[in-house]
Amino acid sequence: MQSEIASRFGATVKLEEPKTPLAIRQMFLVRGASPGGGDALTLAGLVAGQGGRVVLSASGFLLAELGYHQAMALRSAPGVRSVNGVSIDPARFESFLALLKTRPGG
Q1: What is the pLDDT of residue 18?
Q2: Is 69 inside any structural domain?
Q3: pLDDT value at 41 more than 80
Q4: Tens digits of per-residue pLDDT, 46-68?
Q5: In this structure, are residues 79 and 38 in contact, taking their beta carbons and an 8 Å threshold?
Q6: How many beta carbons lie within 10 A of that of residue 80, not counting itself?
Q7: Whole-angstrom Cα distance, residue 44 to residue 74?
Q8: What is the distance between the alpha carbons of residues 78 and 96, in angstroms, rounded to a whole number?
């Protein structure tokens, strides 16, 4: 089914299950539920429990590489406020990480 908005812009939207769901991993932003954003160690533990890998951790959130179904399972985990997919240009992300390393305490 094509949406009216997609049709107006001449876009085609195609949703399908990955051929090998466990092999395909994506990047997700995981945010903690507490007012301060959540404990990074707790969030990292939840991600690891789903077989994911933390790519970047900060106060109250982290970027994690997870399979889609594992990420969706985190949405109902205690201590998790939200889990959303993100798209990151690999070259820009590497530049960002390099910048973080040059900062004091990075």
Answers
A1: 57
A2: yes
A3: no
A4: 999 999 999 888 888 999 999 99
A5: yes
A6: 19
A7: 11
A8: 30
- Which distant-in-sequence residues (6+ apart) come within 8 Å of 67 by Cβ? 21, 22, 24, 25, 26, 50, 51, 52
Cβ-contact 40, 59 below 8 angstroms: yes
Partnered with residue 54 across adjacent β-strands are: 64
The encoded tokens of residue 40 equal 């990074």
Judge whether 2 lies within some domain: no
The predicted structure's pLDDT at residue 88: 74
Is the pTM higher than 0.85?
no
Q: Look at the chain and report how many structural domains it folds into.
A: 1
**Amino acid at residue number 91:** A
Q: How far apart are CA 77 and CA 67, in angstroms?
A: 16
